[in-house]
Amino acid sequence: MERDGYIVLSPDQGLTIDHLPEGYIFMEYVYTLLGPPLFTYHRDVTSSKTVFKTKYPTYTMIQYEYDGNFLSVSPGSHASWTWGLPITISGKKGTRILFDCDLVHGGVDCPAGVDRMAKQYKIIHKDDLHLLKHLVGTSVCKRGTTVSSFTQWWMRITSYLFAVPIQWMFLPLLDRWHNGGLFGLLQRLVPINHYNNYRGKD
Q1: What is the pLDDT of residues 23-67, one digit of tens each?
Q2: Helix segments in the chain, DSSP class H
Q3: Does residue 174 sit within a domain?
Q4: CB 110 within 8 A of CB 66
Q5: Distance from the Cα of residue 59 to its chain's centroid
Q6: Any residues with CB less than 8 A from the CB of 131 and at least 6 apart, and which?
Q7: Cβ atoms within 10 A of the Cβ of 87, count?
Q8: What beta strand segments (E) does 6-131 contain?
Q9: Whole domain around residue 45: which residue ranges?
Q10: Total number of domains in the chain
Q11: For the chain, does the N or the C end have fewer beta carbons within 10 angstroms?
């Protein structure tokens, strides 16, 4: 986990929390993702240690309810501004992926004819709970938007090459409360539907 920024847990590997140091807890947070995923590469900036200056690393856990491809990740990207090529993780129904919220990752479409469903949870150290209180009580279910294969390819390549400026320079776009002006225009052009409650605004 410390080196690569993620671990993969099979359905029979026990509690996720057992793989983290003492003091970590599940937040009151459940985000169910149906259908197509967020194809763009990104960091989970709405719960990131880098953004919220938490004392300890913060984690996302996703449990996949189908067989097939799950997630593409860039090992080591949680600890560096530069990283190598991504790898794609696949497995059986019930597989969980636990990863550092600062890890660069992107969703992968499931096989044709399979109804994709994944459930996302947040795991943080209890001493940092006050810094991420904007996420407490989140219970959301969203269905992704179907896009063409070319659009998927374009979104993934572009977001991977420009992950740093997209995630940090344009972070204010995730506030989602800009109705007019430049930020309002940009928000209508970027895929922010999958982001939840940044800075407590929705």
Answers
A1: 999 999 999 999 988 888 989 988 999 989 999 999 999 999 999
A2: 49-52, 149-161, 163-164, 181-187
A3: no
A4: yes
A5: 9
A6: 52, 53, 54
A7: 12
A8: 6-9, 24-26, 29-34, 59-64, 68-73, 87-91, 96-100, 105-107, 117-125
A9: 6-162
A10: 1
A11: C
Name the residue among 189, 34, 179 with its Cα closest to residue 120: 34
Cα 122 from Cα 29, distance rounded (Å): 6
Q: Assess contact for 99 and 73: CB atoms under 8 A.
A: yes
Q: How far apart are CA 99 and CA 47, in angstroms?
A: 12
How long, in residues, is the chain? 202
What distance in Å separates the CA atoms of residue 36 and residue 59, rounded to the nearest whole number? Answer: 22
Q: Could you tell me the two tokens for 77? A: 């990207």
Rounded to two decimals, the pTM is 0.84
In a domain, 176, yes or no: no
Do 117 and 83 contact (CB within 8 A), yes or no? no
SS3 call for 61: strand
List residues bridging with 59 in a β-sheet.
100, 123
Name residue, tokens 């197509």: 36
φ, ψ at 65 (rounded to 5°): -105, 45
Task: Give pLDDT tens digits for 132-173.
Answer: 998 999 999 999 888 888 888 888 888 888 887 766 655 555
CATH of the domain at 48: 2.60.120.10
Q: Is residue 185 part of a domain?
A: no
Phi first, then psi, for residue 123 (nearest 5°) are: -125, 120
With contact defined as beta carbons under 8 Å apart, do 48 and 60 qualify? Answer: no
- Whether residue 80 is contained in a domain is answered as yes
